[in-house]
Amino acid sequence: MKNLKGILVAVLLLSSLSIHADEGMWMIQDINAALEKNMKARGLMLSAKEIYNADAPGTSVADAVVSLGFYCTGSLLSDKGLIITNHHCAYSNIAKLSTPEHNYLEEGFWAMSSEDEIPVEGESAYFLKRVFDVTDEVEEMKNAGRLDIQSQLVRKYSESTGLTCIFSNMWAGERSYISAYKVYTDVRLVAAPPVCIGYFGGETDNWTWPRQNCDFAMYRIYENDLPVSCEKSLRISLEGYTAGSFAMVIGYPGRTDRYASSAEIEYQEEVALPASNELRGSQMKIISRWMDADPAVRMKYSDWYFGLSNTQENNVGMAACYKRFRVRDEKLAQEREMQEWIDSSPGRKERWGTLIPDLKAAYSLIADGEQDKVYFRETILRGTFISRYILRASNSKTLEQAKEHLLAGIAETDPRVEKELLEYALREYFTNQDSYYFGPYQKRIQARFGYDFRAMAEYLWDRSLVSSKSKVEAMEALEEMDNDPLRKFLEDARISVYNDRNGHQDKRNRATELENEYKRALYWMRLNKGVLQYPDANSTMRISYGRVGGFEPNDGVWYNWYSTPDGILQKYDPANHDYDLNSRQKALLEKDFWGRWGFRLGRKRHGMIVDFLTDNDIAGGNSGSPVLNANGDLIGLAFDGNLESLASDTSYTQGYNKCINTDIRFVLWVLDRYAGMKRILKELEFS
Asked: Judging by beta carbons within 10 Å of its beta carbon (0-12, 13-18, 19+), is residue 83 exposed, middle or buried?
């Protein structure tokens, strides 16, 4: 097998691209001759070594790109550790740092001196230093009967490099890698615009085009209480770009599943997404109504609501795109091709002959049980915000810890919101679940209140410790948690009951095993046919390339490739929080003076681009990624996809997958004209 792999990899490296040129989140360390050729055909002026070069630290563009906790991407803008990312990536940190006296989400935050930069607890910045292909080592260790292979390899490479090492599998384990990182844990907030700038359009505009938000925030990395001296930072291009200009994105996309089978797509379409979309959508309506009615509620729930709405809108759009772009049909066609390839070889037929029908049968056996688990997860586990604090308190080892969690839950929630969420969760749980799953306490509660879910919610809430701060403060023993009715209700349902019923977990494991085998078969088929392929995203550094340009979302409709400040003023609505502006922002926009950060429209007038579109292939985790021109200079920050791209976790749709980006010049204008951050502008290098 090892020799066969070598031959096929050689074929792969020499082959030309046989998929759409702009599709792909390619591993940064594997920019081979074929891929480099295609990028240059699109307009790239750099060599592969100028993009990534582990043997020459500080010389390549990738050296200036960092992962922020593997949930977002950032890039270095100076040799003093200055990082830029998206505002929505920093949203949670900004919310945590905010107080009623200093609401940085609504007011913005600007560190006018280094002493003003605020430490962000729990944040980390990961600098990729090298990637090791350990595929052969994994195979040798397996053949030798070694156990715990991943941890052994991580320990080996951590000790040899002195770096933080992370193991990752590609193509369901057909190839394996170790990524070595230098990690910094002293990260401080430097700049964050108010939400009316950084998140203009809010949930209303999420996943849509045109957009007009300046989605940026800035951190600085420290070590030993001093700014880190960085080897590489990005230059900023003030020349701009036009339709057709080359664009590349480097970052850490979190997860895709493009090797998924039709059975997996059918499961998502018909089992998982419909239930969770309905439940989360109703939760959002409850929270949104209270947020609009009370600014104090908005401050408490903005971070949770932000995450909920982002996931919810993504999943609703995903379900719609599955149908519109016939993703299941695409996967079925792929499976017909695979079956022909399998049947053409006795060896392949022996290994995979019945793989596809076996996979479909396995998914059919788990559908009902998995849907039940969706209702359990969305109502019991996360139906209320305060439930997480109650469960943490229940698992505490000391009375002091339990009190701390409960008091934090009371402080960070609103009882009106929580009781309404609880009532909704109870209604959905009891009316959509088989009573087989109910615990004894839940059955007693149901027998007492029947379908009067409001009375049921009032009973559980009013008698719970979280109903008042005084109850928590009066606690004298940890055992008092045992009698809390809300805690008893939440913990009375067990995921083990779902997994054990009719051997569901074994069936789920079997479906997962077959799905992974399908991915391996697809990998080998493409490799055998000489198709240049990229692995699913898994929070490792990737590069995608494309061009600036608009698109046609529907027949007869054309979207331009950029938006301007005019769109902000057109959407302005003081009665709608998503479209409100503060007085300073509005006055500056109306003044229409862009100075050195604008571009010339005519002899006397300069314009400004706010956001722009490219066809870069991205996924969650790419947020904050630098958008670079042909010379590797920064032109913008990737922050979103479009509605038409929401099936892209499993299928790339040519012509419809768009990357929405904030123009870096608009960021600079905000820093300069709105915030007066002259000290930051002096750190930057322009091309």
From this structure: buried
Q: Which amino acid is at 536?
A: D
- Check residue 19 and give its pLDDT: 41
The residue with greater pLDDT, 6 or 212, is 212
Q: Is the distance from CB of 636 to CB of 661 less than 8 angstroms?
A: yes
User: What spatial distance separates the first Cα and last Cα of the chain, rounded to whole Å?
Assistant: 50
Name 65's bridge partners.
Answer: 75
Distance CA 394, CA 480 (A): 10
Overall residue count recorded for the chain in this entry: 687
Question: What token pair was written down for 588?
Answer: 């500056």
**Structural tokens at position 167:** 């193991």
As a whole number of angstroms, the distance between CA 61 and CA 395 comes to 46
Contacts of 60 (CB under 8 A, 6+ apart): 49, 50, 51, 52, 53, 232
Token pair, residue 71, equals 């949930």
Three-state SS for 489?
helix
How many C-alpha atoms does 101 have within 13 Å on its Cβ side? 0
Q: How far apart are CA 141 and CA 121, in angstroms?
A: 39
Q: Per residue in 246-267, pLDDT tens? A: 999 999 999 999 999 999 999 9
Burial class of 431 by CB neighbour count within 10 A (0 to 12, 13 to 18, 19+): exposed
**89 and 72 Cβ atoms separated by less than 8 Å:** yes
Helix locations, 580-655, DSSP H: 583-591
3-state secondary structure of 400: helix
Q: Is 364 in contact with 370 (CB distance < 8 Å)?
A: no
Distance CA(365)–CA(186), nearest Å, equals 49
C-alpha separations of 307 from 6, 187, 203, 230 in Å: 44, 22, 10, 32
Interatomic CA distance for residues 100 and 531, integer angstroms: 57
Tokens of 155: 């320990």
> Across residues 62-88, what is the average pLDDT?
97
What distances in angstroms separate CA 453 from CA 381, 420, 653, one per listed residue?
18, 10, 44
| Sequence-distant (≥ 6) Cβ neighbours of residue 79 within 8 angstroms | 229, 230, 231, 233
Return the C-alpha torsion angle 337, 340, 343, 347, nearest 10.
-40
- State the DSSP H helix or E strand holding residue 596, giving kind and residue range, or none if neither: none
Tell me which residue has tokens 């997480």: 388
pLDDT digits (tens, 9 = 90+) for 384-400: 999 999 999 999 999 99
Here the tokens at position 553 are 């979302």
User: What does each C-alpha distance from 439 to 198, 431, 434, 435 come to in angstroms?
Assistant: 46, 15, 11, 9
Tokens 């360390």 locate to 29
Separation between Cα atoms, residue 426 and residue 387, nearest integer Å? 13
**Separation in Å, CA 368 to CA 110, 267, 375, 498:** 52, 10, 11, 11
Residue of 250, 237, 339, 206 whose CA lies nearest to 50:
250
Asked whether 456 and 426 are in contact (CB, 8 A), the reply is yes
- Residues near 613 by beta carbon (within 8 Å), at least 6 away in sequence: 209, 548, 549, 550, 551, 559, 561, 562, 642, 658, 659, 660, 661
The secondary structure element, H or E, covering residue 36 is helix 33-42
DSSP3 helix / strand / coil % (the chain, rounded to 5): 50, 15, 35
Residues 6+ apart with CB under 8 A from 496: none
CB 597 within 8 A of CB 662: no
Look up residue 228 and give its DSSP letter: -
Q: What is the pTM of this model?
A: 0.89
What contacts 515, CB < 8 A, 6 or more positions away? 260, 261, 263, 264, 359
Q: Which residues pair with 76 in a beta bridge?
A: 83
- What span, in angstroms and rounded, lies between the C-alpha atoms of 677 and 189? 14
Q: Which pair of tokens denotes residue 443? A: 């059955």
